[in-house]
Amino acid sequence: MNDLDLSDWLERPACFGHLRYAQADPADLVQYSERVRLHIRAAEAFLVMSHAMSRAGCPVVIHTGFRSLAQQQRLFDRFAEGRGLGFDQAIHRVAPPGFSEHHTGYAIDIALPDSLRRAQPDLKLSRSPAYAWLRAHGHRYGFRNSFFRNNPFGIRFEPWHWAYCGDAASREVFRRRDRWLAWADRMPRDLVMLLRSPNPLEQDGYTLDQEAQQILESILEHPEAP
What we know:
Order of helices and strands: HEEEEHEHHEHHEEHHHH
Number of domains: 1
CATH architecture: 2-Layer Sandwich
Radius of gyration: 18 Å
């Protein structure tokens, strides 16, 4: 496995399709459950949304919320080493430390309740009424599926990963991500591959036209500091 040199990696605005994010101010986090901390606005919005989902017969629970740099490092190591995936596979399944939306406190990983999974052990979240409900209504509560099928970031489909972007502060945190999505349909293939590279600022071997350079600068400018 490639060793992660954080002093080097945290200078990058993006890597392998993951954008860099700052850690939330601890003062902005609340204890949502015994194991989950969230940004207070995300927690409030999820409570309202989860009540609506329960009334619709589509309950979900939060499995993961905020993660620190150290927690993300341990998670990445578990995938790369503990699961034997190695760096090259792990990087497309879990963000390296400093590049996870979970650092913001706005991102959540959800799961079906234990009672439902026991009753329907073959039911996958991606095929559940809960996921269909979230796709149809999640935006009304400020939540969006970060890594949907065939997303332009090149990251595998994660039906469990949702992020709150329902107010001005959260939208500012995810501003560069939204720019990436806004430009996605117009991106030339070489720019797509560059943004999915280890360091998009290293443009050796790439010749970008004026529009592609504008897109790149729009996405990478003023990245969040860790």
